[in-house]
């Protein structure tokens, strides 16, 4: 199994590069395959101003959360149901994770997608209360609904 490293939030003012699981085309919560997803080898990732809210301890971000919601990478693995993205593509992903199929997505309100966060509408990679998606300040990251995202 290939290795992976990511930037983990440890507590207010504290982050650390840690060894983390290599991403799988899998939805952990629903315990099923994620055939609409791809895995990226991250080429570039940003530290966003909104990451500062977590890192400075102004949120309830849990220790161990892998940060990073602004991601550019090369596609290295493609789920069976992905049609328009190919291995080797260089892609950037929007920070909001969206399914592209629900009512809100169809109205263009991808920031409040109804399908990607069981707790409330809207999700993002590596962000507190945004669906538990692993962030992209890492070597590798999984992107669901790859054709749309
Ligand atoms: Zn941001
Ligand atoms: Zn949606």
Kindly describe this structure.
This protein is mostly beta strands and 149 residues long. It has helices at 49-55, 103-106, and strands at 4-11, 14-20, 26-27, 32-33, 38-45, 71-78, 90-93, 140-143. A four-stranded antiparallel beta sheet has the order 7-6-5-8, with no helix packed on it. A hairpin with a 2-residue loop joins strand 1 (4-11) and strand 2.
Question: Helices, strands, pairings?
Answer:
Blueprint: E1 4-11, E2 14-20, E3 26-27, E4 32-33, E5 38-45, H1 49-55, E6 71-78, E7 90-93, H2 103-106, E8 140-143
Antiparallel strand pairs: 1-2, 3-4, 5-6, 5-8, 6-7
The structure holds zinc ion (2 copies).
Residues 48, 50, 69-70, 95 line the site of one zinc ion.
Summarize this structure as a short list of keywords or feature phrases:
four-stranded antiparallel sheet; 2 helices; 149 residues; mainly beta; binds zinc ion; Quinone Oxidoreductase, Chain A, domain 1; single chain; two-stranded antiparallel sheet
Give a brief outline of the structure.
This protein has helices spanning 49-55, 103-106; strands at residues 4-11, 14-20, 26-27, 32-33, 38-45, 71-78, 90-93, 140-143. It contains two helices and eight strands, in the order βββββαββαβ.
């Amino acid at each position: 199994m290939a290795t992976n490293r990511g930037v983990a939030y440890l507590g207010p003012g504290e982050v650390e590069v840690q060894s983390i699981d290599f991403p799988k085309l899998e939805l952990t919560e629903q315990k099923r395959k994620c055939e609409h997803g791809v895995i990226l080898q991250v080429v570039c990732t940003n530290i966003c101003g909104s990451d500062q809210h977590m890192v400075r301890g102004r949120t309830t971000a849990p220790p161990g959360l892998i940060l990073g919601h602004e991601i550019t990478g090369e596609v290295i693995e493609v789920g069976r149901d992905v049609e328009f993205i190919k291995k080797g593509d260089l892609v950037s992903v929007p920070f909001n994770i969206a399914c592209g199929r629900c009512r809100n997505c169809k109205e263009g309100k991808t920031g409040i997608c109804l399908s990607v966060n069981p707790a409330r509408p809207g999700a993002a990679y590596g962000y507190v209360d945004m669906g538990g998606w692993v962030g992209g300040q890492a070597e590798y990251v999984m992107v669901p609904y790859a054709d749309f995202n």
